[in-house]
Amino acid sequence: MLVLLGDQPLVTSRVIQWLACEPAGSRASYHGAPGHPVVLGPRLVAEALELRGDQGLRDLVRWRMVEVGHLASDRDVDTPEDLEAIRDEARAVL
Q: What is 66-85 written as a DSSP string?
């Protein structure tokens, strides 16, 4: 299972295809910084279902980083200003 974030519109299908071929416990890395998507297998999905509150998988998994910064951008959109700021970049990537 791949987990992506909805506020990262510049994560391309090439990144998704790349990570889909990686083993569970892998996660995208953008120029050395951890990001999404992440790859979950059955064990990690079960552990995720047990999490409560503000707990996340980042503390439970020693992630295998997969560099994809050459394929896409991990910039996210949290405000209308963010969306405007990456509009030109999105046209270039997509």
A: EE-TTT-------SHHHHHH
Range of the domain at 25: 2-93
CATH code for the domain in which residue 53 is found:
3.90.550.10
Q: How many CB atoms lie under 10 A from the CB of residue 86?
A: 19
Distance set, CA 87 to CA 44, 68, 75, 76, 83 (Å) = 35, 21, 11, 12, 6
Domain total of the chain: 1
pLDDT in tens, the chain (94 residues): 999 999 998 899 999 999 999 999 999 999 999 999 999 999 999 988 888 888 788 777 889 999 999 999 898 899 988 888 888 776 765 5
User: Are the beta carbons of 42 and 26 closer than 8 angstroms?
Assistant: no
pTM higher than the cut 0.85: no
